[in-house]
């Protein structure tokens, strides 16, 4: 047992000082040197009370407990405001699990390896973009560009340059949109594809597209009234530029180009998810501004636990639900005490008619992935939550292995809750869809670019 050398408020004072000075992650020791030296164990970087929910709450909450309206006050300071409101007023239940101390469970192995290899090489150029070794025109070579980020712009860069932390990701997803009465009003099935052309883990530039960051598409396979609707975003590497956005609707039987600043609207009727929400990084970094770290400290989040993955437990990976008026509004979620989270705010400076006034993004410093994003409207009123769960695809019943033979890692499900209207869209990454599409995290020899990621592909998928 470790002898405690610090009083209970030492961490709180340390976090306040970091916000003021821009210091890096870790309380007892710098986090990323600790990761590099010990390979997996982060316990040397934080005092015991930041790695134990029981110690942090002085015995009020422990692993295995369930947070409800009856005990949520004990962890109010560990929840973002909408999550707290969901538990307090909407009957949401959150399961508590042990904090993870093994950083290798917070990444796919290739992305972590690339992050450690390239640490310190990312520089911000005079044009505001992230370049390798400060050489403008040399796109980022892969992994987290700023693993020890100390300002909001760097944290946003970590989220934006490679969303899914694979060179190619394909998500077969189910989207259930619930009305305020707690019933499912819409059920959509869709496929979301992401192909990074730069900032890749294999060290290459895809087919010479060095001026691009990614090709990203989404197409709907059910129900019949939206089946065939598809969208393609072509992201420029220059984060001052808006993506080129194309869409296909079966009723019009043609591909059309859309204004790319219309990123704060539902893709199809009924959903609360916007393109801008994706990965808390749905827009180019430099089309937002006034980045500012507003808080650092511990938080509850579903960032590493295999508990949230239903592989081997349910044929299509669908978890149970709870809360709301019919017990269907929230997926059963398992959260842990994250020892340190950066909360940064930003404003949509490139979108003069955006309905969003600002966003606040909560990011786990151990892997620089967001746990939740809360947006505020232009009046400053709290509006919408985009909360996600992540983890390795491995539990006691099943596992999904990457090409290196190690468990793969991805998102599992998301809550997109419009707290003003009371509408909720639950996004679930499924094993496969009735249409035959499946989730996968590599190209697997398939020509995904021509099949899913060109304007002509949008037309073909629509018909």
From TrEMBL:
The keyword Protein transport is assigned to this record: no
Pfam families: DUF1329 (PF07044)
Record keywords, A-Z: Signal
UniProt keyword annotation of Acetylation present: no
InterPro entries the UniProt entry points to: DUF1329, TAT_signal, TAT_signal_bac_arc
Name assigned to this protein: Secreted protein
Highest classification ranks of the organism: Bacteria, Pseudomonadati, Pseudomonadota, Gammaproteobacteria, Nevskiales
């Amino acid at each position: 047992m470790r002898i405690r050398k610090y009083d209970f408020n030492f961490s709180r004072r340390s976090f306040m000082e970091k916000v003021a000075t821009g210091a890096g992650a870790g309380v007892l020791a710098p986090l990323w040197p600790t990761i590099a030296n010990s390979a997996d164990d982060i316990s040397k970087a934080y005092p015991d009370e930041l790695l134990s929910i029981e110690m942090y709450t002085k015995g009020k909450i422990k692993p295995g407990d369930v947070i409800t309206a009856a005990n949520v006050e004990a962890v109010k300071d560990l929840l973002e405001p909408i999550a707290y409101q969901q538990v307090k007023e909407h009957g949401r239940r959150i399961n508590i699990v042990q904090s993870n101390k093994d950083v290798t469970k917070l990444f796919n192995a290739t992305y972590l390896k690339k992050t450690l290899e390239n640490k310190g090489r990312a520089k911000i150029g005079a044009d505001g973009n992230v370049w390798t070794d400060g050489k403008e025109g040399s796109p980022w070579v892969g992994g987290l560009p700023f693993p020890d980020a100390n300002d909001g712009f760097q944290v946003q860069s970590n989220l934006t340059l490679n969303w899914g932390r694979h060179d190619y990701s394909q998500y077969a997803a189910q989207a259930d949109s619930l009305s305020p009465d707690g019933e499912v009003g819409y059920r959509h099935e869709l496929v979301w594809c992401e192909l990074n052309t730069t900032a890749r883990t294999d060290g290459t530039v895809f087919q010479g597209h060095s001026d691009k960051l990614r090709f990203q598409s989404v197409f709907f396979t059910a129900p019949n009234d939206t089946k065939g609707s598809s969208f393609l975003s072509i992201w420029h590497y220059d984060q001052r530029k808006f993506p080129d956005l194309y869409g296909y609707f079966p009723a019009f039987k043609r591909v059309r180009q859309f204004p790319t600043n219309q990123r704060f609207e539902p893709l199809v009727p009924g959903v609360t998810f916007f393109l801008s929400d994706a990965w808390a990084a749905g827009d180019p970094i430099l089309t937002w501004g006034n980045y500012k770290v507003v808080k650092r400290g511990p938080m509850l989040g579903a960032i590493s636990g295999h508990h949230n993955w239903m592989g081997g437990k349910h044929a299509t990976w669908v978890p149970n639900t709870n809360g709301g008026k019919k017990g269907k509004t929230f997926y059963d979620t398992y959260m842990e005490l994250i020892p340190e989270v950066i909360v940064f705010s930003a404003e949509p400076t490139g979108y003069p008619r955006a309905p969003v006034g600002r966003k606040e993004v909560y990011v786990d410093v151990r892997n620089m992935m967001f746990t939740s994003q809360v947006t505020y409207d232009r009046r400053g009123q709290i509006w919408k939550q985009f909360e996600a769960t992540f983890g390795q695809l491995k539990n006691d019943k099943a596992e999904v292995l990457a090409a290196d033979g190690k468990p793969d890692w991805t998102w599992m499900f998301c809550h997109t809750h419009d707290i003003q209207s009371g509408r909720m869209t639950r996004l679930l990454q499924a094993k496969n869809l009735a249409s035959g599409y499946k989730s996968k995290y590599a190209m697997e020899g398939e020509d995904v670019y021509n099949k899913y990621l060109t304007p002509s592909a949008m037309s073909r998928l629509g018909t």
